[in-house]
Amino acid sequence: MSAVEARLAELGLTLPEVVPPLAAYQPAVRSGAYVYTAGQLPMVEGKLPVTGKVGAEVTPEEAKDLARTCALNALAAVKSVTGDLDRVARVVKVVGFVASASDFTGQPAVLNGASELLGEVFGDKGVHARSAVGVTVLPLDAPVEVEVQVELTEA
Fold first, then answer.
1. Nearest to 5 by CA among 66, 72, 67
2. Residue 3: which H helix or E strand, with range?
3. DSSP per position, 51-97
4. Which of 29, 36, 37, 106 has its CA 20 to 30 A from that of 132?
5. Euclidean distance between the first and final Cα of the chain, in Å?
6. Which CATH code is given to the segment(s) 3-152?
7. Residue 37: its pLDDT value, please?
8. Which residues form the Endoribonuclease L-PSP/chorismate mutase-like domain (predicted)?
9. Does 154 score more than 90 pLDDT?
10. Whole-angstrom distance, CA of residue 139 vs CA of residue 118
11. 3-10 and 107-122 are packed helices; what angle lies between their axes, rounded to 10 degrees?
12. For residues 148 and 103, is the Cβ–Cβ distance under 8 A?
């Protein structure tokens, strides 16, 4: 077990299986020293635990937990192309999309779910740049979607 996966276990988390693509793309792609994930939905065992807009059918607190799940799914996607999460030198960028009710403006707080998980797992290497974007709708009516970009250590 890698040190990163041991840290996940300390947090009471298990790295899930990679979420299969919903269309014509790969869950993650490596380019040089970087891995870019596709947008990860908060899938748990092949299903969305909740659907709808944040600020309407989904509370901000629920959405924050869902963003955490998205980040965990992104780590699974990173591992699928690196073989070992200990190769992550740093998390560079997180981009999050929040399906928002028309008057909801708390997207940054929702995306803290993903950012905080990455910090808990990687420590200082998990500190990253981030964008939090409110959108009308996401695939499968998911409340949140997260992309992660990481830099790898030398092999």
1. 72
2. helix 3-10
3. -S-BTTTB-HHHHHHHHHHHHHHHHHHHHHHHS-GGGEEEEEEEEEE
4. 29
5. 18
6. 3.30.1330.40
7. 98
8. 5-147
9. no
10. 24
11. 120
12. no
Nearest Cα to Cα of residue 75 among 124, 23, 155, 2: 2
Q: Which two tokens stand for residue 28?
A: 């993650």
pLDDT (tens digit per residue) in 31-69:
999 999 999 999 999 999 999 999 999 999 999 999 999
**Banded model confidence at residue 155, pLDDT cuts 50, 70, 90:** low
Model confidence at 8: pLDDT above 70: yes
Q: What are phi and psi of 129, to 5 degrees?
A: -80, 155
Place of tokens 């944040």: 54
For strands 129-135 and 88-99, give the pairing.
parallel
Dist. CA 113–CA 103, nearest whole Å: 21
Strand 34-37 with 28-31, pairing: antiparallel
Chain segment 81-127, per-residue pLDDT in tens: 999 999 999 999 999 999 999 999 999 999 999 999 999 999 999 99
